[in-house]
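user:
I keep going back and forth on a fold encoding question. Separate attempts, laid side by side, tell us more than any discussion would. Would you put together a sequence-and-structure record for a protein of your own picking? Write it directly below this note and I will take it from there.

assistant:
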Amino acid sequence: MDSAPGIPPLVPGRLPLLGHGLFMAGGSGRLKFMERVRAHGPIVRIKVGPKDVTVVNDPTLIHEMLTSQADEFTKGLLFEKLKLFGKDALPVAEGKPHLRRRRLMQPAFHRQQIAGYVNTMREAVEPYVASWDGGTALDVKTEMQLMAQSVVMSALFSATPRRDPAYTILNSVDTVFTTALQRALLPISALERLPTRRNRKAEAASSALRTAVAEIIAEHRAHPDTYDDIVSLLLTAQDDTGATLPDDEILSEIVALLAAGSETTAVVLAWLFHELGRNPDMERRLHEEVDSVLAGEELTADHLGQLPYTGRLVQETLRLYAPWLVTRQALRTVRLGETVLTAGTDVIFSPYAVHRDPGLYDNPDRFDPDRWHPDRPQPPREAFLPFGVGKRMCIGDAFALTEAKVITAFVASRWRLKAVPGSVRPVGEITTHPSRLRMIPEPRTDAQDRSAQSV
């Protein structure tokens, strides 16, 4: 078998250690490295800092690990480091505590409940979109993060921060995520306890997040009859003994939801508008669909089912710019395919690399929303995992999909975003970020003309 650059060929029947350390690769290098590793078989080993880590490349084995063998694994190294948000929060909780917390929070994420959030989502993003200055370049990722953060806070917490506090929250989330990834890629616990500038910055960011959320909780406690949202649900929830949740656990839960909600969907939306800026025909199709369906009306939940092309744009962006790194750790000795993993084995897999596998997707590096058209052959269900699968699948998947469609359609109804000259490349951070994405908003006078004609 030919070796990818910098990686020795594998020996059949064995699981050798690849010599290239993932920690040594930069943000873009990490993505390329994970794609190259895929060529060496269903399961291989790599070096992550001082650790040997097993990489699962085969989507069938990934699916098995996340479903039928889910109880044999914890969430692993990256999620352990994400306990900066709080050790008991749903995204990082394990075992029975995770199951109880997921059951508690699930009602807030039922599809019927999410449909009721659509008007709130639209109202949350409208001030940001209305503030754009036609002809003045935007940092698109930051704008999408601010909008996604506003959606989460409005829909789930009944709170709307002013722009300056919103920036503080956003910067704190970025800092905590960056710190968690750095600690996962160079897992030397002793370094985390040193009073370094980086560690102090991470603690300050975590503290700022918790302070912002504590204010939301205090407002809900002071006016309990005013609110009906996920904060209210957590404040009134009781465990098996009838006791309410400790304040620190409620705080951690809301901080984690805020962080996840303002990061992942925002990055997907940034990439989506980047691709539209490179593909005028796709942008035209989106505008035509949105204009036809809305016909000058405000976007509501009833419109979303009539926007299939908008949905395919979101789905294709989720495919092409999926998370690049997910971790697990074997709780006990377990067989995965032909490989036996001993207890304590650190495992990683890359949705980004799976989604770009030419054996699973035709022309995988091409942005092609119509690959998801129902008349075209679809990839195996194991080959698409932007939200994971199984009992640890992201609880907010339907919320995120709805939010992405709402923001895409709302922006498209008013603006077109034109690319600013310069290269934009994917970077492996906590998710797959654009390196630097600036675009120029231009008001859609054609949409205004059509709206006037429809009245």
